[in-house]
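Request from the bench team (R.T.):
"We need a structural guess for the complex before ordering more NAP. Sequence and SMILES attached. Just send the tokens back."

Command: build protein-NAP structure.
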Amino acid sequence: MPTLLITGANRGIGFGVVRLLAAKGWRIHATCRQPAQAEELQALARNSAGQITLHRLELLDFPAIESLGVTLRDEAIDVLFNNAGVMNMAQRRYDPALTTQDFGHTDVEEWTKVFQVNVVAPMKMAEAVVESIARSERKTIITATSVMGSIRLNTTGRWHHYRTTKAAVNQMMRGMAAELRPRGIICFPLHPGSVRTEMNFAAAPLSIEESAAGIVKVIENASLKNSGRYMTWNGEEMVW
Ligand SMILES: NC(=O)c1ccc[n+]([C@@H]2O[C@H](COP(=O)([O-])OP(=O)(O)OC[C@H]3O[C@@H](n4cnc5c(N)ncnc54)[C@H](OP(=O)(O)O)[C@@H]3O)[C@@H](O)[C@H]2O)c1
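Reply to R.T.: structure attached below.
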């Protein structure tokens, strides 16, 4: 069975993907910041007969990412899914009424941290486990992006901190795809849809289950044809 390494596995879209791939028999290295408090994930791991391994990982702690790579260095990892991400450091959620990331509200410390979690950490994760990916069958690295990272579709502005990190991660994954293609490694950014999680608002069109089911299909069907493309949860391509 294939092996998944995923960040932000304790809730939201990450937990949805873990639940579905665990049911399909995948072996899963599930990372989150506070495993002791990840009750649903703990329960799933307990019932999985050793199929799910939990790892504590704060993505702002880059040495910890490198240590995880060392821990996993003898494994073959088929898919790395850099799922974890933040909208902002304080409220952590999208609220159309908030103006905190609008023009005139630049918060340097927050912007830097959002960038570190959404862009730098996925690169560090990929670097930490690339040899484990290279020796697997599926050889796939996926990073969560957003429609808010599309430059073409940005006609309203606002949310500069978050938008720029997702545009940056698109650029990063496209470059990573070009660099790793000679080794047969598939890399792409993936927009999970607009999903009702803690990050997003209650009126978002997709449930976690719908988004996760689409993402799992994209994971299962990933090939070098997808590499370097701006993919969506339902297997379509976004405009950059
Ligand atoms: N929901 C949407 O509509 C939507 C749309 C477009 C893109 N996305 C993207 O999809 C991904 C998942 O989003 P979601 O809606 O599932 O969000 P969510 O419910 O807010 O979950 C975010 C996950 O990221 C983890 N995380 C945040 N900061 C972290 C850090 N410093 N270190 C380690 N883990 C950290 C959280 O852990 P804690 O529980 O410890 O905070 C949590 O597991 C994100 O990258 C997001 O940008 C979501």
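Two things stood out. The first helix runs from residue 12 to 23. The chain is about 40% helix and 15% strand.
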